[in-house]
Amino acid sequence: MAIRVFVLLLLFLSSAKLNFALYEDQVGIMDWHQQYIGKVKHAVFHTQKAGRKRVVVSTEENVIASLDLRRGDIFWRLVLGPNDAVDEIEVALGKYVITLSSEGSILRAWNLPDGQMVWESFLQGSSLSKSLLSIQTNVKVGKDNVILVFSKGFLRAVSSIDGEVLWEKDFSDKSLEVKNVIQPQSDIIYVMGFASSSQFNIYQINPKNGELQKHSTAAFPGGISGELTSISGDTLVALDATRSKLVSITIQNGEINIQKTHISDLLVDSSGLAIILPSKLDGMVALKINAFTVFVSLNSEGKMAIVDSFNQPTVVSDALSIAEGGQAFAVVQHEGSKIHIMVKSGHDWNVNLVKDNTEMDPQRGLIQKVFINNYIRTDRSHGFRALIVMEDHSLLLVQQGEIVWSREDGLASIVDVTTSELPVEKDGVSVKKVEHSLFEWLKGHMLKLKGTLMLASSEDVIAIQAMRLKSSEKIKMTRDHNGFRKLLIVLTKAGKLLALHTGDGHVVWSLLLTSLHKSATCQNPTGLNIYQWQVPHHHAMDENPSILVVGRCGITVNSSGFLSFVDAYTGRKINSVGFFHSISQVLPLPYTDSTEQRLHLIIDTNGFSHLYPRNREAIGIFQNEFSNMYWYSVEANNGIIKGHVIKGKCNLEVEDEYCFNSEHLWSVLFPLESEKIITTTTRKLNEVVHTQAKAIGDHDVMYKYISKNLIFVATVSPKASGDIGSSTPEESGLVVYLIDTVTGRILHRMTHPGSQGPVHAVFSENWVVYHYFNLRAHRYEMSVIEIYDQSRADNKDVLKLVLGKHNLSAPISSYSRPEIITKSQTYFFTHTVKAIAVTSTAKGITSKQLLVGTIGDQVLALDKRFLDPRRTVNPTQSEKEEGILPLTDSLPIIPESYVSHALKVEGLKGIVTVPAKLESTTLVFTYGVDLFYTRLAPSKTYDSLTEDFSYALLLITIVALIAAIFVTWILSERKELQEKWR
């Protein structure tokens, strides 16, 4: 009887576990998703009506977004294509967001509440010109409000209701470089520009029908420098070509009056070149001269005078219309760790409507842009809020001297990623902490038990989800035994380093590198890559790991480079080196010194190799090994791949013992008239291969050709190097190569006639998978090449293996001609690919999966077995036992295989995989405009229990089992005693 009761209890518990499926509470346990927008270029506030107060922005990442002014959250967001940059943005009729993009060729209207597209107009034109957008509320054609657009050499009036072009005026055939379009009155439009460097032109246009009413010209020797800025309805200001004079242009009844004023007459110390700041002010212009920001006013007689000047970094907003025809604008100064915000009246400089001081994190850098918006306070006075864009691309809203919210939008432009382990947990904890942890553990498992038994209330379900999302173990700042907790260290386009915790993606520390600041000595600093510099092992756990940041002072390869060394735990800058030689390549070497600093070889554009760290121990290690140092360079534009070897010290005028010369070993030349290099890829340096042998179904063994010296190269015909469809199948062709980088020997070559790029490839172990477009089939394809070492498979003499004479025990040399065989196969693939990667695990035992970033900005996990070149239509029984799948012409897309689930990583750029300590698990980080992180187990979690495993249920089962055994034993004893009494 007791056994029956126990069996029924077990069946009830097991069925309860199977029937309880609360998918929502699992969201965010092993993954996280963060949404960003990028550095803001334009911002338009919408706060007039009751309801949601918002600001609509466009960014450098081609994002249009509506943000909540109260919290900074995203109401809606649109990510345009990579070549669809937003030129201008405005709000029309209080309900449409109007955007002009693609160099003025596309005009769109979006619904303000939800971001849905209302209409789209394509503005044709052949000439390149400045793009201008203006929403006219006082001009109507019929009952329709007019949007004025100048682009592609045409001035157009566009309907704000349906996007229809009402009229257009062609200026492309007048050889006119249009500088500005203004509308001083409701019945006049002025189009201004230079027909040559010495003739200024004004065209007066009728806004009703686009007819030319008047054309005026004026001699202007030398022309202007920069933009033509409007400071009133009939007055514009510019700098002359020498940037030493301010030029005011006044238009009265279509007549042009030009006056010039020397800046030296206004400002005594004016030795530098002046720049007009891009701020639209009324009756005033802001100039930047050296470190000074100068405000110059223009009176009714055309006389210029300095109103004020500042010697601190200063940013000026556009003028904002407020009640009763007044205007206001913001002047924001940065001084130390504080910013000073002054909102001044447009009619009286001495009137400060607002004057606040705000503390600012120094790691955000200087202020780049500011946009202001006004609101009515309870006392009916004007209040102002400032939307500030910082140097690190972060976005802040400041109101009444306080930061209301901030967004770390620099994470939308990640350049490179590396990882770092967290510190080891220190021994010894307080009794109070242990008791608290034990209480929380018991409380959590009791809640899980209630959920398993379907006894949890709605409050309990919320508590379970909150507990999982905010687990102290998940966001702990120490290592875990499974290796799930790590730091993701990212370098952004703004030159900022940020460390993200893999638990929930929060920022642990951030550092804005001073070496990546724009300065007089470095006008275009560029961050290139980050590398692991120092990784202490078990005998030096007290030392913090550090990373190396490589940058360049300029956008060309010949620009001088610099290095920065940063503590991976604290974000503290340890040291920096620069400006020195150029940086062409950075080669991490497989050697470390006694302090665990990894040796790096930096190759400059002259072919010299520079060793870091620069110490005697490092140079001693390097000199012992440099005879085996080989490297290659790719000159894609010239169609050449070259191999090099280190040969002795450099012969320079200034002796440098850490500089080494190189010798050119080999070259592979691709004929430029038929092949153009578009893709190269190699294996990861830290990839672990578990075994070289691969057992196949007929009990035979194939040996993988494992070499870190292989490079995959893809070339296309020059006519097929453009976009898909730019060439015919007969003109197109894709050729792929596998080349040994030590000898330059081509190990394998394969052609794909009628195919073209872009080619995305991944190289792992002995195989490479690449994705391209087949013009003949009008479909994307994926091909796989696997390389096997035939010389190792032929000789299987066990006696020779024991005696050490077997070829498996012989050292491998790239100079010995390999006996290899290749197997390849091609499959159709339905998706366009943005990025491709492969999973990596600690020991390389777990099966591989391809991680494909699709055109839909999602990540698809594709089992490597689908890309096995040994697949056949009818596999044999032994092949089936081996796990070989039947051959199909296309790769299956299984909805459950999307790693990112229903989430999208907008603007997806790259996928990074990192092995965990647990062999079954790999960590996946995907970045673009958004960030996404998850844990992936390609062969399931065969070596651990899941996180939602119910220990409480296991404990109850064990207790019930013990109780059942005890009850059964008592009943058995009683039954036995009763039988003896009979």
| β-sheet strand percentage | over 45%
Structural class: mainly beta
Could you give a short account of the major beta sheet?
6 strands, antiparallel
Give the low-confidence spans: 5-25, 428-436
Radius of gyration: 34 Å
Q: Bin the helical content.
A: 10-25%
- Terminal residue distance: 22 Å
Label this structure with key terms.
982 residues; mainly beta; 9 helices; 45% strand; globular
How is this structure best described in words?
This protein is mainly beta. Helices cover 12% and strands 45% of the residues. It contains nine helices and 64 strands. The chain has a six-stranded antiparallel beta sheet, with helices on one face. Strand 24 (292-298) and strand 25 form a beta hairpin. Helix 1 (2-19) packs antiparallel against helix 9 (951-981) and helix 3 packs across helix 4. The longest helix has 31 residues, at 951-981. The radius of gyration is 34 Å and the shape is globular. 34% of the residues are buried.
Short description:
By secondary structure, this protein is mostly beta strands. It has 9 helices and 64 strands. Helix content is 12%, strand content 45%.
Helix and strand layout, with pairings?
Layout: H1 2-19, E1 32-34, E2 40-46, E3 54-59, E4 63-68, E5 74-79, E6 86-92, E7 96-101, E8 106-111, E9 117-122, E10 132-141, E11 144-151, E12 154-159, E13 165-170, E14 177-185, E15 188-196, E16 199-205, E17 212-219, E18 224-230, E19 235-240, E20 245-252, E21 255-262, H2 263-266, E22 274-276, E23 284-289, E24 292-298, E25 304-310, E26 314-316, E27 320-321, E28 327-335, E29 338-345, E30 352-359, E31 367-376, E32 382-390, E33 395-399, E34 402-407, E35 414-421, H3 431-452, H4 458-469, E36 486-492, E37 496-501, E38 507-512, E39 525-534, E40 546-553, E41 560-567, E42 573-582, E43 585-592, E44 598-603, E45 609-612, H5 616-625, E46 630-635, E47 640-649, E48 659-669, E49 676-682, E50 693-695, E51 701-703, E52 710-716, E53 733-740, E54 746-753, E55 755-764, E56 767-774, E57 779-789, H6 790-794, H7 798-802, E58 820-829, E59 833-838, E60 849-854, E61 859-863, H8 877-882, E62 910-915, E63 922-927, E64 931-936, H9 951-981
Antiparallel strand pairs: 1-64, 2-3, 3-4, 4-5, 6-7, 7-8, 8-9, 10-11, 11-12, 12-13, 14-15, 15-16, 16-17, 18-19, 19-20, 20-21, 22-23, 23-24, 24-25, 26-28, 27-28, 28-29, 29-30, 31-32, 32-33, 33-34, 35-36, 36-37, 37-38, 39-40, 40-41, 41-42, 43-44, 44-45, 45-48, 46-47, 47-48, 49-52, 50-51, 52-53, ...
Helix pairs in contact: 1-9, 3-4
